[in-house]
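Re: [help] complex structure
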Amino acid sequence: MDAIVVQNLSKRYAHTLAVDDISFTLPRGGVFGLLGGNGAGKTTTISMLLGLLVPTTGRITILGRDMARDRFAALARMNFSSPYIALPARLSVAENLRVYGHLYNVPKLSRRIAELAEQFNLGELLARPAGELSAGQKTRVALAKSFINKPELLLLDEPTASLDPDTGDFVRTALERYRSESRAAILLASHNMAEVERLCDQVLMMKAGRIVDRGAPAELVARYGRDDLEQVFLDIARNKAA
Amino acid sequence: MRRVWGLVFRHVAVYRRSWPRLVEIAYWPTLELLIWGFTARFFAQAHTSLQGNPTVLAGAALIAGVLLWEITLRSQLGVTFTFLEEIWSRNLGHLFVSPLRPAELVAGLLAVSVARTVIGLLPATIIAYLLYAFNVFGLGPVLLLFFLNLLVMGWWIALGIVSLLFRYGAGAEALAWTIAFGITPFACVFYPVSALPAWLQPVALVFPAAHVFEGMRAVLLHHRVDWGELGAALALNVVWTLLAAGIFAGQFRAARIRGALISIGE
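Output below.
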């Protein structure tokens, strides 16, 4: 069973076609990058994958569940993190994790929180209000929240945006470790091309709502005759063909 | 059930360490009671007459009206304030991508609303007894039916407001504080429906509160339970709740189509 199957997915707002007939399949056990410039359709696509947004046309199947009819069964087995969505600031880190542990029906919740605290180096932060943490600490907490239910599919929106290199590396290492320890699929939207090259097995390049290219980072770099993925990104953004 | 508790726990965790928030819950009901309680006592003392005098009974009805109407106001605010807290803390995105179903979200909001209503009214109820010798529990077991009807009325008003928040985003926030207060003249809290102009009386009678307060006055002034008024309040609450639930479900679905769940706080 694949982690994500997207068939002929489109999203039209009143005057805008935000996503235009895209199809892709992501198997379990890999890390996939969703790349594109601002307005390319990444956030709209992720929102539809999360059930936040109803597609205009097309079908999404996640972990074997049709998102149009059975999204809550799929949502229980996946999770999401974004620096643009906050956790309640007045709750302590431990309380935040407890809230989401309940929402995701996590068994042996106290033990799970202790595991995450160790994994994300949160031990000294557990009693502190989430609103008093630094950006890097908040990112680690948000990532711990997204791991609370041991998701089989993890969606990440710019997981290392505005983090210092040390914290960014910490996050990337955590994702690599999770990937190696589980059969989970990870789909991340990122503007950090070095991060994508390091983490991703496959990349989907989006532009104007369409998937304009796809492949392993090394394949894309070779196909475009470039030195790195950032140059490929720029070629695509500036309409230079492979 | 556990998901509902998760949402309730999120708010319990905030209140249990914040005494200003607890004070805020009880502040307005207590203030209202003090103002109207002293007003009632002034009118009662202005007439040097015996207990049973209509002025004294009207004073009791005034105090009972303040306490009971606060049930609707507090239960409505309990739901909408709790939902707004999720908007203000930018947490809705996390909630809506979790397995929390819309019905469970509503159940969690209602549970927090009950807790806020009880906490908010407890000091006012005690003050009414200590300062004005008015025991609201003297209304008898029928008080429970008054309480439930007014609680449910607050809930369906709140569901309507949350639907407006789905439709218009945080721009509709001001309605959360004002809509229920706007209904007060038609709820006939302090006067009978017959005191309204004839053309306004049908408007009042579509609100369950008007029937509850007619029933309350029947108990206080005539010592009888008016089951007809209570039945009307219950039936109207069922109709309004179904209507509000339908609007909520429709607006939630529409928000998912428009993408408003993502931008509701903006």
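Residues 165-181 of chain A form the longest helix (17 residues).
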